[in-house]
Structure of CRAL-TRIO domain-containing protein:
Amino acid sequence: MASKIPESDQQLLLQNLDIFKIQGKDKRGRKILRISGKSFPARFLSVEVLKEYLEEHIFPRLAKKPFSLLYIHTGVQRTDNFPGISALRSIYDAIPIHVKDNLQSVYFLHPGLQSRLFLATFGRLLFGDGLYGKLRYLNRVDYLWEQVRRKEIEIPEFVYDHDEDLEYRPMTEYGLENDHPHPRVYAAHAVAIDSPSASIYSMRCFS
């Protein structure tokens, strides 16, 4: 991560963006640390400032009891939100051992193909078998509610929007669609024009 703004501004940025939030409980009654990947300003944040923020504001609240982590990967862009492999390792190494021991489950919402491949390649190297073994991929928000108490945690609206897009365009999840119009537009054409060419057009979202 490259720091391009003063440290004091970086600290304010972390507070205002609400990236790390302890909120709600899972079905086993464990508190949840929610992390919003889309909000993470990797290009403007130094590793040291981030570690200092976590050590002051987050880790002390997770030191005494078991907890779960919900990482929301929805809308993450590698160029904007990914801190880099060395930064991830440095941050993980800075987590106190008792906090690591208290972490029971990691719920990874909307992982996508690239993040799955990355973790399959580097997951154990970065985080060890212990943490990697706690990872649970959740492709849809509905699967999240099987693990956490629905009314106790706030999920951003853009996450639900992405979930809806995946229902209509499931191949987007695997990086095979990124520039087609919404398939519901195709459906409208198919209903309005009853012709073979219209039917072919309506199926473009699956090609």
About this structure: The beta strands are 20-25, 31-36, 67-72, 103-109, 135-138.
